[in-house]
Amino acid sequence: MYKYNEFDAAFLAERNAQFRAQVERRIDGSLTEDEFKPLRLMNGLYLQLHAYMLRVAIPYGTLNSAQMNQLALLAEKWDKGYGHFTTRQNIQFNWPKLSDVPDMLDALAEVGMHAIQTSGNTIRNVTADHFAGAAADEIEDPRPVAELIRQWSTDHPEFQFMGRKFKIAVGGGAKDRAVLKAHDLAVRVVQNDAGEIGYQILIGGGLGRTPMIGKVINDFLPRADLLPYLEAVVSVWNQIGRRDNKYKARIKITLHEHGMDDIRARVDARFALIKPTFQGADQELFSEIEAYFAAPDFRTDSTAVFSTAYKTDPVFRSWVDTNLAEHRQDDHAIVTISIKKHGATPGDASAEQMRVMADLAAKYGYDELRISHEQNVILPHVHKSDLPAIHAKLKQHGLGTANIGLISDIIACPGMDYCALATARSIPVAEQLATRFDELKLEHDIGHLQIKISGCINACGHHHVGHIGILGLDRAGVENYQITLGGDATWSAAVGERAGPGFAYDEIIPAVERIVSAYLDIRSTPDETFLETYRRVGLAPFKAALYPEAQKKVA
Amino acid sequence: MARAFTPKVITANHLIEGDVIYLTATDTWSRDLAEAELITDEAHAQLRLLDAQSQAATVVGAYLADAVSGDAGPEPTHFREEFRRTGPSNYAHGKQEALAHV
What we know:
The complex is a heterodimer of chains A (555) and B (102). Chain A is an alpha+beta fold.
């Protein structure tokens, strides 16, 4: 993985020294909050409901064991012993003191990490497929592109004070695991008929108040054109995007208002202007970066231990069947560690759990870890013979839950338990849903079903693209939850349909249970997933199950 | 017609800790809503808010929050203020943790 060079280290040290001085001036009263706020946001520091919150970038979700151990140290030394992994492959610390944050940033810099551009109207932390470099369906590891974009966008002078934030995701697999179509801009590695690798570029995706699915602006961009093209897109939007209304400022609205033909023409014109200024330094840099992401030297060994354990240990077998994905090496596997134990906060890991995962990565996983937007941790490269030992260790630390892709593998934003913007809680809803379906012992029978919960309209919990989406709102001073059905976060992306009136806090769990039980009744075979059933039968039967009283009135 | 004024407290976050604090009648800041000054007069509320907002070296984001008089002092009327005076519901952290240690 990428290692900071002297330039990176010096840049970060200087930036952290600047922020330390800014914090000092805020504390001694030389800076007002209005002056300080944009500065702290540029460095990932929010003020939330109960405390400050520091959002640390995990670029394209990749970590090594030293970095994970350092996150554990931050959690223990300056927070309450845990961290929260987010839907944007970041980690958030919920309880830092303002005066401690400069020390936290210095500690992060020791392992090549930072909180720069995790907030503010800039290009945010670049996200990527969490199986990058490991997935069997991959054309090319998307992380060198993501790292190139990270370096280009970090402190880019033209893009520090835009009309709104700008989120970029990169994918390189046949399957989309990075929710590409819900980003302001997505880069998808593709191969043309001549066998050349290039990029398909999508723009205008986004969730929030006005959910939109991203559209293709360029079907095949030659490799060398990537940065000038991205610069052209962001530049065009930065000029014509609306600044009169922050809810209409994202590129999805600009695209909607101007139309793709107009935007494409503007981008092409801007690209023609910019392209000559890129004289190959970006391509040299890209080659250097690529070398850092060379695949590890995969070991070969017998997988007999794995086969025996799979046959004899039903708990291990269940975990293997649920939490493993196909690796590009036959004798390796991709392990998704669930940090969604039933009844626990989705995405939270204790310092101890972080250290356990770091140790496993160092011992068995070629020192690599990933964070998924689904708020789980991944060991991307594991030889199958090591799986029984890994599983045993995970179980000891509350990390052995076999629920990846199942109903209790819920995405949930922090909601009103932490977030100052939230209109309702989401964490307790996720906890109760997971507990309930665990009690019913139905989740393996239900199969692949994604529930995504947001505690406000900004949709950090991706509720629009959940198979079952839940949106928490404040209705006349009471928490109220709206349900959407049929959303899809993959390449066949779709925004869910609203099912009808919302439910009170104490009604939402039974409401979801009614949807699931309707699905179990309606599905054509046990193999037909919830989403397939929904697409076959539509909203009506689920609506009938959700609102039995209304049905009675009609009858 | 303007809406009738409802009782308020002045609340903010502490500059260093970032935790929730309330302005008391004696011009100090308390971490306990029950000790806050319950303001029933609109003109007085605006003056007190100006006082609070001028203390930039101590507090951040002072605002008027609805409250009602309870047995032990002011109580919240909205669930957001209930969470602010208590802490998150997934862990016993925040104010509820401090109270448990008393």
